[in-house]
Amino acid sequence: MEIHIPEGPPPPPPSPASGNQVLLRYVLVVAGLVFTTMTLYFARDLFILGFTAGIFAFLLLPLCAGLERRRFPTWLAAATSCLLLLLVVIGLLLFMGWQYGHFGQDLPALRSAMNVKLDEGQAWLEEHLHVSQKQQVEWINKEMASMADSGGAIAMTFFSTTGSALATLVLIPIFTFFLLLLKGKFHTFFRQLSTDHSDTVLKVVTSISVLSRKWLKGVITVMLVLSVLNSVGFLLLGLKYAILLGVTAALLNVIPYIGPWIGAVMPVTIALLTKDSVMYAVGAAGVILITQFIDNNFVTPKVVGSSVSINPLASIVALLAVGMLWGVVGLILAIPITGMLKIVCDEVPGLKPWGFLLGEEKIYPEEGRIYIPFIQERPLRKPLGTPGK
């Protein structure tokens, strides 16, 4: 006996109005992304100045507040905090300038050693690869000529970028001073932005302040530790300019992922030029590898911790995007900016999925659970040996 189930009415076709709304939403999102990207690119100097001064202001905020508790006027507390920061930066610049001044005195000797190494390399290529030195010289001259053709444009870009960076550096202490001076006004402003009396905007800014302060303190501490470790390693190898090389490699470490390997080029090159054995260059590279291993597994997790808890994929995408927009400064600021964006996404209900996408998942295999910041923990799978219900 067959049972026939009557079919219901077919679902209504999508209305043209709903399709137009989806298309309009897509167009608006794309237009917003394009407009935001253009704004970030063409106003990059202003944004870099604002972000950098804001991070330094967050760092100096506890010091400024402490001075005010000691009966300092607000303007004097802000000026004293900025002056102390400026003295530290000037001291670092003077130290690096003194070290590079000694390095510059030895440049003629290093140039002569480089010519000798190049002659030895050409002889090795001719003997093993059967490429005559004349052909090598012709190829080098050809490449140098092609580089000279574009050298003018490269020089103009370099000097314009350098001039813009110097102008920004001069303005950073001034902007930091005014941010500290007007911190009370900004506090009231952010509180008034929350119309529902929940102080959401103020909470977000406070979280960003804590993140910025912790990140900057961690970066400075890591640079100090790496400066000591690198310098000790290069001194044990007997390299010239060991302290200069160690501090330079530590300063470049502030650029995530690529900075340490850029910092390794200089000590390896110095080892090749000043030592008779190539093993010293291998040792210099080994020092960088060892210090990076110590930094990545012990120093940074303990010092910086989870101040910027974003996953590696989000970090790489942020480095590429902000680096293309703002250059080297963008590579340095990409991680804290992404961390600030994650804080905003975590606090806005409609953006919480994006905050989860940017963040790190914490998996606990022994419990079979996954930790999601804005969702209650739930079991992913039944633990082994648990009887089913």
Write structural notes for this entry.
With 389 residues, the protein is mostly helical. The chain contains 13 helices and three strands. The chain has three domains: 123 residues, no CATH class; 109 residues, no CATH class; 59 residues, no CATH class. The protein is 77% helix and 3% strand. Strand 1 and strand 2 form a beta hairpin. Helix 3 runs antiparallel to helix 6. The chain is globular. It starts with 15 loop residues before the first helix and ends in a 10-residue tail after the last strand. The C terminus is likely disordered.
How would you summarize what this structure contains?
The chain has 389 residues and is mainly α.
